[in-house]
Amino acid sequence: MKVLLIGGTGLISTGITRLLLERGDEIWHYNRGQRSQEFEGRVTTITGNRYDHAAFEAQVAELPRFDAVVEMIGYSVEDIQSLLRAFDGKCGHLVFCSTVDVYARPASTYPVTESEGFNPTVWDYAQKKAACERILWQWQETAKQPFTVIRPVHTYSNTGAVLHTFGGGSYHLDRLKRGMPIIVHGDGSSLWSSVHRDDAAVAFANALQNPKTFGNSYHLSGDECVTWKQYHERVAEGIGAPKPSFVAIPTDLLHSIEPRTYISAINFAYNNSFDPSAAKSDLGFRYTRTIADGARDIYDWLEANGKLESAERVPNDDKIIAAWERLSTTMREEFTV
Question: Do 206 and 283 contact (CB within 8 A), yes or no?
Fold first, then answer.
């Protein structure tokens, strides 16, 4: 099979490329040529700027027809309009990497199924991906061409990040390892799911030229759908840290004093629970790397490469905890008869 990945060297793209090469497919990449040279000599790379639409379309016009094209880095309506112009008659199966963040928060029911209407109202990234999907679904309805959407949850590799209320930053792992208190947004009971890049790659690879997937969308979400407190407990287990001590603080209060919690306010505070049964049935998707496994891999890689940040790097966490404890004490005293 001749496959073109638009991107090819990003997080999920790398996993897909490795898997397709292993099974003997002919792989092409379209990207800037500025990232990992891991696949040099094994894939055909077309170097260009995917966001310079006129140049992109001119380059694609000179390429052969592909059995499948996987769009990994299209983020705007203009990107997708250009994609459809470029590959008109040059693509047997179009696969679009979207995101579970296209859905409205909160959703109408949980776990969210692929039939849920999507209408993100806050996050620019999610709004753009939703707009891309609308264009593509309209195209698929009229063109009747083989087309598939895959919506991963948070996806990571061993060089990635373990998430927390403040987003990323590996200093959080140092806090866990040293038994320092961990801030959780709200009461720490909203649900979260992650999936390893290699597990996601299997689903993408199995979607290509698979008639079951034509005209369908799929969630790639982990079997562990856990509260944020449980998530941190499993991370702690994975890295050999003591059971965490939590400080729960209202999300809106955190967001008002600390810009780093923006992602919690627009995403983490809501339940991220998605049904992966269609992907398991049609794409052979399987969840093989647990939260604890993934955290251990990330921690070991950070430590081995001298990239593990010290808890002292972000002293604001302790400052916030101290302020919250003072406020809580004052409130309890005020209402104690």
Answer: yes
Is there a contact between 128 and 120 (Cβ–Cβ < 8 Å)? Answer: no
Secondary structure of residue 5 in the 3-state scheme: strand
Strand partners for 48: none
Structural element, H or E, at residue 255: helix 251-257
- Give the position of tokens 């990239």: 307
Q: What does the DSSP 8-state code read for residue 320?
A: H
Q: What is the pLDDT of residue 24?
A: 96
pTM to 2 decimal places:
0.94
Residue-wise pLDDT for 23-61, tens only, equals: 999 999 999 987 767 898 999 999 999 999 999 999 999
* Beta strand extents in 121-164 (DSSP E only): 147-152, 154-156
CA–centroid distance for 327 within its chain: 36
User: What's the confidence (pLDDT) of residue 336?
Assistant: 84
Q: Are 79 and 49 in contact (CB under 8 A)?
A: no
Q: How far apart are CA 296 and CA 304, in angstroms?
A: 12
3-state SS assignment for residue 21: helix
Task: Output the pLDDT for position 258.
Answer: 95
Of 290, 275, 167, 313, nearest in space to 233 by CA: 290
